[in-house]
Amino acid sequence: MPTPPRSLLAAAVVLMLLLLLSPAGAQETCSGIAPAPRRRGAWMSVASFGGRGDGQTLNTAAFARAVARIESRRGARGGTLLYVPPGVWLTGPFNLTSHMTLFLARGAVIRATQDTSSWPLVDPLPSYGRGRELPGGRYMSLIHGNGLQDVFITGENGTIDGQGSVWWDMWKKRTLPFTRPHLLELMYSTDVIVSNVVFQDSPFWNIHPVYCSNVVIANVTVLAPHDSPNTDGIDLDSCNNVCIEDSYISAGDDLISIKSGWDEYGIAFGRPSSGITIRRITGSGPFAGFAVGSETSGGVENVLVEHLNLFSMGVGIHIKTNSGRGGFIRNITVSEVTLNGARYGLRIAGDVGGHPDTSYNPNVLPVVHSVTIKNVWGQNIRQAGLIRGIRNSVFSRICLSNVKLYGSASIGPWKCRDVSGGALDVQPSPCTELASTSETGFCTT
To answer: In this structure, are residues 297 and 266 in contact, taking their beta carbons and an 8 Å threshold?
Structure first.
């Protein structure tokens, strides 16, 4: 086995320091959520398995052979690093394995083939019951893993390029046969770090951990045109113990969204998203900067979001569910948000999102309780906000504290119904459903 390049070893050391130390030396970091990147006991290059980074050769088999070799060495001390050298590595979908690092060198691009006929189908997620866009299965993500442990996707800010335009065109023309693929999806996996990589032009959602625990996503960049359909940046789905920080996202839908299953399938699967921290995110997009839902049938709880810098958004903060969803959304805190340009500063709504089929029970109502939005400053806002609960499931203990949203002289006022909680130091004046509520002791600056 040849000795790894000195630049690779140096970059690995720098990466460990970046992940273990805060950017400013005093800020909180994700340290402790997942194991720190370890020095792998072995390394190999995809070029050693017949791969060519010329932008023309299809490297799907080379990646598969490399991962198979790593899997065969699973007992190797510390696991194995798969090195992707500088170049453009055209490939179809491939799987990762446990105890491995996928490392993209500076100048390395893993580029998805646009031959959609070569993309395999996988089963629908059990908490969704069908593909998210269409009935039946769904296309496998470009980089995929199932039941893995101790996996790092990292590097020197190399790029994972989904070449999604062919998929977007099919979506717009309504010629998609199945649900589009993600760029990265890890299922039922633990101890995951995704860092120092650029995700670009995903066919569908960019980064999708589902049924995972102990996940860190840090120092990533996500890029897609604002008119690319449903190219969410990061979607956490029925995951626990997750930290996302220090990242830039500009995409065609929600920048970060937390989900947990869809109607009767999510209720039956019963796995909530919980224990999630999101901090120091900058970004722009046509929908929400931070969202919960709308698929929340397994429940979402214990979420802390802070230090968001958002611009040119559809909605700054969006919490969304619907009748028939069931589940719960509770103990959510969003604070220290700067918002420059948005149709809505805030929306909390109980009538958002469709249903997988006609088998859902419309009388199964979600519970939304203990949501705090504080220390928010926005300018160029068209509508302050909307908080619209469900008549037979009033959204309760909703707290707005030190929320200042400014726009033109005609900025739209707050609109509320079927909600209770409190509002302190809110501009423009809060809706009467919150302002007249006597239960404000829980809602402080």
So the answer is: yes
Q: Is 62 inside a domain boundary?
A: no
Residue 420 lies in a domain: yes
Residue 258: closest CA among 308, 207, 223: 207
pLDDT in tens, 110-140: 999 999 999 999 999 999 999 999 999 999 9
Q: What is the CA radius of gyration of the chain?
A: 22
Could you count the other beta carbons within 10 Å of the beta carbon of residue 277?
19
Do 240 and 274 meet the contact criterion of CB atoms below 8 Å apart? yes
In a domain, 230, yes or no: no
- Residue 253 known to be catalytic: yes
| Domain, as residue range, for 258 | 254-445
CATH code: domain of residue 393: 2.160.20.10
Give Cα 155 to chain centroid, integer Å: 19
Structural domain includes residue 87: no
Tens-place pLDDT, residues 24-73: 445 788 878 877 777 898 999 999 999 999 999 999 999 999 999 999 98
Total domains present in the chain: 1
Residue 138 pairs in a beta bridge with 122, 179
| Helices and strands, counts by H and E, the chain | 5, 27
Structure tokens at 159: 């790029």
Q: What angle do CA 237, 242, 244 make, to 5 degrees?
A: 100
Q: What are the distances in angstroms from CA 72 to CA 50, 51, 65, 98?
A: 18, 19, 11, 11
Catalytic residue among 150, 201, 246, 253: 253
Beta strand 197-200 pairing with 143-146: unpaired
